[in-house]
Amino acid sequence: MIEVRGLTKRFGGTLAVDDLTFEVPPGVVTGFLGPNGAGKSTTMRLILGLDRPTRGTALVHGRPYAQARSPMREVGALLDAKDVHGGRSARKHLLALAQSNGISARRVDEVLDLVGLQAVANKRIKGFSLGMSQRLGIAGTMLGDPNVLLFDEPVNGLDPEGILWIRNFMKSLAAEGRTVFVSSHLMSEMALTADHLVVIGRGRLIADVSTAEFIAGGSTNRVRVRSPQQSELAALMTARGVAISQVDGYLEVRGIGCDEVGDLAAAGGITIHELFQERASLEEAFMELTRDSVDYHAPGSREPAPSADETVLGPEVSR
Amino acid sequence: MSAQTTTSTVPKELRDAPSSTLSRVMRSEWTKLFSVRSTGWTLLALVAATIGLGVLASWGTNHGWPQMSQSDQRKFDPVATSMSGFALGQLAIAVLGVMVISAEYSTGGIRSTLTTVPSRMRVLTAKALVFTAVALVVGLATSFGAFFAGQPWFAKRGIGRAIGDHDVLRAVIGGGLYVAASGLFGLAMGVLLRRTAGAVTIAIAALLVLPGLLNVLPGAWGDAIVRYFTSNAGQQISYIHQSGNYLSPWVGFGVYCLWWAVPLAIGAWLMQRRDA
């Protein structure tokens, strides 16, 4: 269980994390979503006691992590897979971590097996691909068999096989009753992995909902209608106080369903050629929620263009 | 019954004995120190530079002895001459001291370290203890090596010293202590600045360049600055002849220890407060 209460972090004049309050319960995968520079990594660093909060608290097992008695048995965290000394072999790196908490060398071999790095265990980390580094980082988090796990962008740099492995790995960790908190800027990835979502933008909490609700909530009631008497139909809708807009030769109607639109048109004697309910994707739902909280927009990209298989919000910028 | 329920809600790991004890963190730091190649190379540089230059200086002094003035001959310190390579060797150990902490920051490894051992003071204490032990052992070996490699050059003229002679053992052991203290000066700069380049630059300036340059300062206050300045104070521990302006061996070494202890204490205080 992770509890974040009123957590605030200011770097100079910038509020990186602004009064965040949420809980990460055990037994489910909780996704941590947000656009570029939203404060996800900073929040994780605050939870781990790497950064000092300006205000507020972050508790793990009911107390600040800095006071943990058996840190690696309580929390496993992977922030940046490249946060290692490249001159060390994978095994020595893990051994040093293990020794600091009195964990046996045998466990080092177990976790190397777990992530499939046994063959390169004595190679220097310098030569590892990002995917191998991610696996090494995950091996490190599992040394103490902790029941709280934090992963910052764990699928970065992994091939499809690796992504599938991580996805199932995190689900199995949660199924064992552990607390799993994972950040990502890949919304489609979170849709497949996370049961619950904490969404932030510009350091502020935007949503704290189940993934199912998040997707459903994003599909705002939008109906598109095409008619040879488009302007008459528009006038009719406006007269009834219904919100409308012109999109790609369609009339987009908000707030009422297909049935009501059809009935209204029929009552007004207006011919309809096409009428359908628009379903927003998870990407659109996300974009809609975070639109005002994205720090930087590309010129002319105020309107997001979803439909790509996965929407990538650009590389995560660490502060 | 209800008491049992209460205890069972406390996760097991919270009831365990603390697992990241100082001795365990020290084992971890030992593994870290000797699992990167730079450690071996730096220690080799310390030994080779110190003994090599010491032999060169001893050979040269013996060679030029007849041309030396009588007063120079009177001031001649055979023990210090055989260990004069520490002028360069001290930089090798200071660089290693810097790297023990700055490499953690430059690679990002500090975040892995502090995530697995959140107590920053325990991490720093373990690093300092392990590094001091290594520096002391290698420093003593180097010091004795330099002494025994240098003295044979003086033997023919009868101007050398034996290890059992007055003050000699103190000076040779002092050479080892000086190495450890120089290493800790590097460590202190590393903790304070967290950057390898900056910390190494300051160490070279403070230990090698400035002590010589300061001689240009005039008057009594100039003499005082020279006397108390870093290696000028610290190296007295490895001399058997003290010249007038300089401190006595142990006072000098004590002053040198302040040169690393104060910045290390400030660095430790900052490490507690700064974001990692």
Topology:
The complex is a heterodimer of chains A (319) and B (276).
Chain A: E1 2-11, E2 14-24, E3 29-33, H1 40-47, E4 55-60, H2 71-74, E5 75-78, H3 90-100, H4 105-115, H5 130-142, E6 148-152, H6 160-175, E7 179-184, H7 187-193, E8 196-201, E9 204-210, H8 211-218, E10 222-226, H9 230-239, E11 243-247, E12 250-254, H10 258-267, E13 274-278, H11 282-290
Parallel strand pairs in A: 3-7, 3-8, 5-6, 6-7
Antiparallel strand pairs in A: 1-2, 1-4, 8-9, 10-12, 10-13, 11-12
Helix pairs in contact in A: 3-4, 4-5, 8-11
Chain B: H1 2-9, H2 12-15, H3 22-33, H4 37-64, H5 70-75, H6 78-82, H7 86-107, H8 109-116, H9 120-150, H10 152-155, H11 168-193, H12 196-213, H13 219-228, H14 230-234, H15 249-273
Helix pairs in contact in B: 3-9, 4-7, 4-9, 7-8, 7-9, 7-11, 7-12, 9-11, 11-12, 11-15
Task: Describe this structure as you would to a colleague.
- The complex is a heterodimer of chains A (about 325) and B (about 280).
- Chain A has helices at about 40-45, 70-75, 90-100, 105-115, 130-140, 160-175, 185-195, 210-220, 230-240, 260-265, 280-290; strands at about 1-10, 15-25, 30-35, 55-60, 75-80, 150, 180-185, 195-200, 205-210, 220-225, 245, 250-255, 275-280.
- With about 325 residues, chain A is α/β, with parallel strands linked by helices.
- Chain A has 2 domains: about 1-215, P-loop containing nucleotide triphosphate hydrolases (Rossmann fold, 3-Layer(aba) Sandwich), CATH 3.40.50; about 220-280, YebC, transcriptional regulation domain (Alpha-Beta Plaits).
- In chain A, the strands form 3 sheets. Chain A has a 6-stranded mixed β-sheet with strand order 5-6-7-3-8-9, sandwiched between helices.
- In chain A, helix 3 (about 90-100) crosses helix 4 (about 105-115).
- The radius of gyration of chain A is 24 Å and the shape is elongated.
- Chain B is mainly alpha-helical.
- Chain B has one domain.
- Helices cover about 75% and strands about 0% of the residues of chain B.
- Chain B has 15 helices and no strands.
- Chain B has helices spanning about 1-10, 10-15, 20-35, 35-65, 70-75, 80, 85-105, 110-115, 120-150, 150-155, 170-195, 195-215, 220-230, 230-235, 250-275.
- In chain B, about 45% of the residues are buried.
- Mean pLDDT of chain B is about 90; it is low at about 1-10.
- The interface of A and B includes residues 77, 84, 85 and 103 of A.
